[in-house]
Amino acid sequence: MKILVTGGAGFIGSAVIRLAVSRGHQVVNLDALTYAACLENVAAVAQDPGYAFEHADIRDRAALDRIFAGHRPDAVMHLAAESHVDRSIDGPGDFVETNITGTYNMLEAARSFWVSQGRPAGFRFHHISTDEVFGSLPDDPTVKFTETTPYDPRSPYSASKAASDHLVRAWHETYGLPVVLTNCSNNYGPYHFPEKLVPVIILNALAGKPLPIYGNGLNIRDWLYVEDHADALLLVLKQGRVGRSYNIGGENERSNIDLVKTLCTILDDLRPRVGGSYAQQITFVADRPGHDARYAIEPARIRDELGWRPSVTIEEGLRKTVQWYLANEDWWQPLLNRQGVGHRLGAGG
Ligand code: NAD
Q1: Fewest CB atoms within 10 A around its CB: which of 16, 46, 118, 145?
Q2: So where are the chain's domains?
Q3: Using an 8 Å Cβ cutoff, are 226 and 189 in contact?
Q4: Is the pLDDT of residue 242 over 90?
């Protein structure tokens, strides 16, 4: 299958591409190379004859039409997005333009190409979204997000993703475009850009800097190892029912403070700190405005319909992640100089 992956120089898109190429798929990576992109993420497959890169912006409809016509994909996996909640608080405009208008452009370019091909039933437009569209849950382990939970986004980021999800469903209902959607929980793992919680904690710990915890640290997330996520995404692309959405979670709920303490314990083991545990560097900082209390995925649909479950526990996944960062300083060191990295963003105002 030839898959057009948008956002393939980012964290999750690159994991999808590495896995897809290793399974023999042809892949076209369409990416604008924003501050969050890193082509080194796909260096392992860049020389593969089945891999092609297109430097393009999903806000540029003419470029999208040219890429569809030139590569004639069998499927689209749409991951390109502005993805950082804190940046969406400081500058929501880019999120509206890329996540909403960009998705609209992708849908129209895909629809135009699909119609030109005689509306093949096997074509897929797979939209990758987030559990943040569902809002915030109470601290009750029996209550989780299902695929029918009403949308209730709270941040500019999640509102822009919710809007894009609605557009994708509308293009299916109105024009018959064969779509599938997925909403996943917080990802972590290798190649995670060093502005997100897990890499910030690892790299600040190693640098002897404070480990910043927003608010009281009791916000709960459901952590999903990125390589498990990539596996689930390819499965949904292949076997997901058209027009349907699937929630993808890691079955690993943790409060932020517990997650950070686990990371400190792993670091204490793998790179012992002079003077005691890395946990001594934990510092509580001002909370994120509108910080959702809890996200948790009920994964029954993908488990029961498609037979998918995550392969690692959070302890196993975090250990692999710490090992990867310890072994790949050449990857992350240059990224620390990118715009905004290492600074508190989205504090409000
Ligand atoms: P990322 O920020 O690491 O990567 C995004 C990629 O998209 C980058 O390579 C960037 O250059 C590209 N991009 C941004 N704007 C573009 C544009 N206008 N045109 C073309 N390319 C553009 O993001 P990620 O963490 O890999 O997330 C991928 C997708 O998964 C996003 O849609 C995000 O909303 C969703 N998601 C992420 C998480 C998570 O935990 N990271 C959780 C749920 C959903």
Answers
A1: 118
A2: 2-193+225-251+292-313
A3: yes
A4: yes
64-78 in b/e burial notation, b at 16+ Cβ within 10 A?
A: bbebbeebebbbbbb
E strand segments, 176-249: 179-184, 186-188, 211-214, 220-225, 245-248
Residue located via tokens 């430097």: 55
Query: Which percentage of the chain shows pLDDT scores above 90?
Result: 92
φ, ψ (nearest 5 deg) of residue 122: -80, -5
CA–CA dist 178, 191 (Å, integer):
31
Q: What is the CATH class of 2-193+225-251+292-313?
A: alpha beta
Tens digits of per-residue pLDDT, 170-200?
999 999 999 999 999 999 999 999 989 999 9
Cβ-based neighbour number of residue 250 at 10 Å? 27
Q: Could you tell me if 263 and 199 are in contact, meaning their C-beta atoms sit under 8 angstroms apart?
A: no
pTM for the structure as a whole: 0.97
Counting Cβ atoms within 10 Å, is residue 298 exposed (0-12), middle (13-18) or buried (19+)?
Answer: middle
**147 Cβ neighbours under 8 A, 6+ residues apart:** 183, 244, 245, 246, 247, 301
The single residue of 31, 57, 82, 131 carrying the catalytic annotation is: 131
* CA of residue 37 to ligand 1 center, whole Å: 9
First to last CA, the chain: 47
Q: Cα separation of 79 and 181, whole Å?
A: 11
Per DSSP, the three-state class of 50 is coil
Q: Please work out whether the CB of residue 14 comes within 6 Å of at least one atom of ligand 1.
A: no
DSSP state of 9: T
H/E stretch holding 53 reads strand 51-55
Q: Choose the catalytic residue: 82, 132, 165, 195.
A: 132
